[in-house]
Amino acid sequence: MDSLFFLIPIALIFVVIAVRVLMWAIHSGQYDNLDTEAHRILFDDDEPVGAEKKSDPESRRADSDDR
Prior knowledge:
67 residues, mainly alpha, membrane
């Protein structure tokens, strides 16, 4: 029974901290745009490894000089 007098206030403190962190996240804009990150995985912006730019002959010449 004595442990309940210790555990209940600690649990209430954790709940208050969790609610404050949630309110801070909501008010600071953490949940404003949920769609961008979900769609980012669908679009591939990276160039394939070993792909050369065909429109820039200078970059190809510089690459061949490095070898």
